[in-house]
Structure formats: C-alpha cells, structure tokens
Amino acid sequence: MGKRKVEEFLPDECHRRYCCVHCRAHLANHDELISKADFTPATITYSVNISCGRAEERFLLTGLHAVADIFCSSCKTTLGWKYEHAFEASQKYKEGKFIIELAHMVKDNGWD
C-alpha cells in the first residue's frame, strides 16, 4: 500500500484562506491569489495539499502551453491545472502558477 501524504495546514495568521470544498483541506492563503476578481478560475502563486499529474501540451485560449492537472492531496479531486511551460514569450509569466476552479474552493477563516 502506498504512503498517504500528510496534510499541510496554513498558519493561523492566514486571516483569509481557501480550502477544498470537498474535504476542507487547506489550499491557499488569499495573499497568494493573483486574480482577485470573482470569476473562475483563480490564479494562485503558491498552494499546499496539491498533487500534480503529468504535464501535457494543450492549446488554450492564450496559446499552446504544457500544463499538468492538479488534485487535492487529501481527497484526490481534480481542482484545475498548473502551467508548466508557455511556448509564447508573452505567456511566460504563467509558468509555475496554479489555476484552481472556484467551484472546488471554499473561503475559510476571517471572511467578514
């Protein structure tokens, strides 16, 4: 039987954080969110409790990218994707960023 990854927790000082809507595992601090608008998906620079699949080339709205599906490490739900490589120079800023569909995130802790 394979080893189960130990769930990581964001510090209590994270006044606003996002969690997996399915299992409530911590995913990201609001400060790591790049796209602050309320639209789907959310672009995040750093995340916890995320596993990446194998990168594959996909033609997206902004061109050809190598992306990997990302999953919640706790419940294995597909959350979105990670940009591994951008083929166009104007899209290089996306490399290493996580895209999480808002339908898979819930706000937690301090959202008054």
Looking at this protein, list some descriptive labels.
0% helix, three-stranded antiparallel sheet, 112 residues, mainly beta, six-stranded antiparallel sheet
Q: Would you kindly provide a written description of the structure presented here, covering whatever features stand out?
A:
- Strand 5 (56-60) and strand 6 form a beta hairpin.
- It is globular and about 40 Å long.
- The N and C termini lie far apart (43 Å).
- The protein has strands at residues 17-20, 26-29, 42-44, 50-52, 56-60, 63-72, 78-86, 98-100, 105-108.
- Helix content is 0%, strand content 40%.
- Strands 3, 4, 5, 6, 7 and 8 form a six-stranded antiparallel sheet that branches. The chain has a three-stranded antiparallel sheet with strand order 2-1-9, with no helix packed on it.
- It has 112 residues and is mainly beta.
Write a brief caption for the model.
With 112 residues, this protein is mostly beta strands. Helix content is 0%, strand content 40%.
Topology:
Layout: E1 17-20, E2 26-29, E3 42-44, E4 50-52, E5 56-60, E6 63-72, E7 78-86, E8 98-100, E9 105-108
Average pLDDT taken over every residue: 84
Number of helices: 0
Poorly predicted ranges (pLDDT <50, ≥5 residues)?
none
> What kind of assembly state do the chains in view correspond to?
single chain
Q: What is the overall silhouette?
A: globular
Helix vs. strand class: mainly beta
In this structure, how is the largest beta sheet organized?
A: 6 strands, antiparallel
What is the string of helix and strand elements? Answer: EEEEEEEEE
Rg, Å, rounded: 14 Å
Beta-strand proportion: 35-45%
Number of strands: 9
Distance between the ends: 43 Å
Task: Kindly state the percentage of residues in helix.
Answer: under 10%
